[in-house]
Amino acid sequence: MFGLMGDANLFMIDSFVRECGGNFIPATHEGSTILMAAGYAHVSGNVGVATVTHGPGLTNCVTTLVEANRMHTPMVILAGDTPVANPRHLQSIDQRELVKVTGAGFVQLRSPTTVTEDVAQAFYRARVERRPIVLNIPADFMWQETDYAKKILDVFTKPGGVAEGDTLDNAIGMIASARRPLILAGGGAIHARDELVRLADMLEAPLSTTLRAKGLFNEHPYNIDIFGTLSTPAAYDLIAQSDCIVCFGTALHDFTTDRGKLMKDKRIIQIDVDPNAIGGGLHPDAALVADAALTAETILFWLNEAEIPASGFTRELDTTTLTAHVAGTDKASEGFVNYVDTLEQLEDALPKDRVLVTDGGRFMTEVWCRISVPNPHSFVGTVGFGAIGLGLQTAIGAAVAAPDQPVVLFSGDGGFMMGGINEFNTAVRLGLDLIVIIANDSAYGAEHIQFVDRKMDPSLTEFSWPSFAEIAKSLGGQGFEVRSSEQLETALQAVGNRTGPLLIELRLDPADVPAMRI
Fold first, then answer.
1. Contact at 8 Å (CB) between 461 and 412?
2. 3-state DSSP helix/strand/coil percent for the chain, to nearest 5?
3. Which of 101, 120, 136, 261 has a Cα-to-Cα distance from 215 of 20 to 30 A?
4. What's the confidence (pLDDT) of residue 160?
5. 466: domain range?
6. What is the pLDDT of residues 490-502, one digit of tens each?
7. Whether residue 215 sits in one domain with residue 84
C-alpha cells in the first residue's frame, strides 16, 4: 500500500503494518501515492492500493486520479474523511463531489460493522470498472472495533463472451474479401496475443499495436510496430495501402488514426469488451462488444471453415525497413548532445529486460519510437491526461511491482522539477533499481516550439535550472551530466555498475529537439 499519512489514516496505516504485516511505502506528496499505485497495478496486473488523508490530502490527488481513470487503472484509494460529528472541521469538503469530477468511482464506508463488505465492494468495482475507486472512511471510525468476517465478492470478472449474429457474419465477410488486411491491437487485447498472431498468420496480414500495447508482437516477422502518428514512414505508407483494418481492444484515439486519415476508404472492424470504446473516435463498419481472444478464435474458425485463402499481403514485406525510424546524426551545438543519436545509443546500452516509464513532454515521442520494451506490461506512459510531472512516481510503483527488473524512466526537465525531485529520495530510501534519464533542454519544450514556429521570442519558456545530476547526488543517488559523447560513455559505464537510483542528465539544445509526433 502506497500512501501519505495524516489525521484520518495514520492509525489505519499503523495497523496495516504492525498488526497485518503489510508493506507500506510512504510518499512525500499525496498525488504521488496514486501514481505509485498505478505503476504497480500496470506492471503487476493486480489492483493498486493507496491511502491519503482528508481535505487537502485528497484535493492533492485530483490530477493523478484523472490520469489513472483515463488509463483504465484498477485501484482502490483508502481516503480518510473528516469526522461525521464535526461538519465544521477545517479540512471538511464534499469528497464525493470532488471524486466525481475526476471520473473515479466512490464507495462510502457506511459503518464499522459493514467495513469488510464495503472494502470488498471497492475492490470488486476497481476490477470490473477498470478505474480508481475511492473508499471514503470517516476518521472517527479508526478506533472502532467490530468482528472480522472475510468478505470477497466471488464474481467472474471477465465479461464479453463470444461474438455472434449478423454483425459477426458481416465482419467475417469483410475480412474474407479483403486483399490487404491489417490487424491492430490495443491495450484491451494484450491478453490475446497468441490468438491474434494465429489469425494474422492465416490471413497473411501485418500486425501492429497502439502505444499502450507497445511490444506485444516483438519478434514476429510481420510486426510493423506502432500504428498511427508514431509509425515509421514506411509503415505509415503500408497502412495507407491496406483495405481492411481489424481493431482489437482499442478505442481508436485520434493519434492512433492520425485524426481519421489512416482509416479513410477502408473497412474498419472494431472489437472491444468495453461498449464505451466503440464509435468514440470514428464509426466502424462493424463493431463487436466481445472478448478479443475469443473473437479472434471465432473469426479464424469460420474463415478456415469457408476455406478462405490467405491474402498474400505480407509476402513481399521488408520488416526491417518497415520498423526503421529516420536515423539521427551526431551533430550538436557546443555543450549539448544530439537527442536522437543519444537515444539510439541508450537503446543499445540500457538493460534489455527493462521496464520503461515515460513522463509527459516534447521528448516523449522519440523515446516511444526508439526505446524498445520486452512486452506491454513493461511499458507505462503517463499520457492519459496530457500532464507532466507524473513519471518518477509511476516508476517507483513499477519498480516495487517488478523488483527483479531495472526500471528506466525518461522525463523532461520541467516534469522532473514539478514532480520528480520530491520523490527521487523515496526511490533512494527504497533502494530501487531505477535509472532516470532527464531530457534537459532548459525549457518547456512544447511551448518553446510554438513561439519559435511563430517567429516570436521564446525566452519566457526558458529556464536556468539547477544541476539535476548534483541534485540526485544530494538526495543519495548517483548523478551524471552529459554534454559530450565522452560524458555519455562515462554515464553508460556507470549504468552497468549502479548500486541504486542513478540519474543521467542529457543537456539538449532547445532549438534542436525534434517536434512531437502527435
1. no
2. 40, 15, 40
3. 261
4. 66
5. 339-512
6. 999 999 999 999 9
7. no
